[in-house]
Amino acid sequence: MQEAVELLECLIAKPSISRDEALAADVMEQQMKAWGLNPRRFGNNIAAWDELDEQKPTLLLNAHIDTVKPVSSWTRDPFKPTLEGDRLYGLGANDCGGGLVSLLTTYRLLNPQPSTLHAQRSTLNAHPSPPYNLIFLASAEEEVSGQGGISMALPLLPKIDVAIVGEPTGMQPAIAEKGLMVIDGIARGKSGHAARNEGVNAIYEALDDLVWLRDYRFKKVSKLLGPTKMTVTVINSGTQHNVVPDECRFVIDVRTNEFYQNEYLFSFLQKHTKSELKARSFRLSSSHIPVGHPLVQRCLQLGLRPFGSPTLSDQALMPFPSLKLGPGESARSHSADEYICISEIEHAIQTYLQLIC
Q1: How many Cα atoms sit within 13 Å of 43 on the Cβ side?
Q2: Rounded CA gap, 145 and 313, in Å?
Q3: Which of 36, 59, 222, 276 has its CA 20 to 30 A from that of 233?
Q4: How far apart, in whole angstroms, are the C-alpha atoms of residue 126 and residue 79?
Q5: pLDDT per residue over 120-179, tens digit each?
């Protein structure tokens, strides 16, 4: 536990904004080497695994090392780890440093190296050999779903059958996750002088589309994820007060449940809007793991409560079953004065060991 917390403090002290995670990756790589874990580095992604047993399925333990940029309302230095009672404050502590060090500690306990045994030998030996091959992966660029993150790392890993993603879920299993599609819209008009009846106002051209996007409701509602939801989140138009704008740009944030693929939704939106639409990506679809999967069944045996998550993670890029399960609370993520509780990390490690063994 102490080593896990010390590692998290080191990570908080190394700014690791998405696409700039090299310092945090260095910390992970050096510490894993010191623990005898033989890390493999792919860009800023750090992985570890031992010789695999072909008779066992392979379980990926994954969490990310990158963070969002700190918001302006922090009352503490976001890059200075601060321990107050049970709480460790710092950017990335909750999302998802707590899950990262908890999964790494679990991996260490279930894959003990000679250099780590010494005084901990009796504790390590208390855990039976898991029914899975284990791969640990600390991934980069999760917050931006970047090409240099898990998309780079997965093809370089052995074949994976299932994954646990250490996002903050209050240590309850998120067995389904909404997908994401971001769409840029452009309504076009014709410029003219605002004092005369000239031009075609692009803002007015966009109005019908904006109202339809606000009011439309998709019929298929998921038991776990609820409805597919569209939200216009950004709008820009005009240059000055006396010029009729000839262009209105807006952004649509689409959160999909398992009933709607991104490609289908994009085509559907094109048919119902006048504006020119362009999807930034189709690759972040909704993901889920069947309730009957052995890992989910084990969660149920432990009294855990499966749910559907509205937030996106690297699960969307995993071509195999996965669930989110990690310490901390999603509501703390991306907020000022983010923190993780030391007791939450301890509970997470215990729960992971029970789940995997």
Answers
A1: 22
A2: 8
A3: 222
A4: 37
A5: 544 545 566 789 999 999 999 999 999 999 999 999 999 999 999 999 999 999 999 999
